[in-house]
Design goal:
Its main location: cytoplasm. With 86 residues, the protein is mainly α. The protein has one domain. The chain has four helices and no strands. α1 packs antiparallel against α3. The chain is elongated. The protein starts with a helix and ends in an 11-residue tail after the last helix.
Length: 86
Amino acid sequence: MRTECLADALDNRVEFGVWGGMTERERRALLRRRPMVTSWRRLLETARSEYERDARATGATIGGFVPKDYVKDYAANPVKDYAQAG
């Protein structure tokens, strides 16, 4: 649910409140860094899928759950390019 919440706030340029664990300031900075993203929902779903796949491959899950910070890690990750997913 956290990913969907953040994606909705980013796609709709919600200005106020904490959405998906990110403050207004964090979301504005993310939008400035990634101006070419057309669908944050698609980008974050792609990132989540890759994160979960990698976590399963390395055994990084705890009790079947992946760490909750994957949204921030992948949304802000300057190394991987998810722009094609967005």
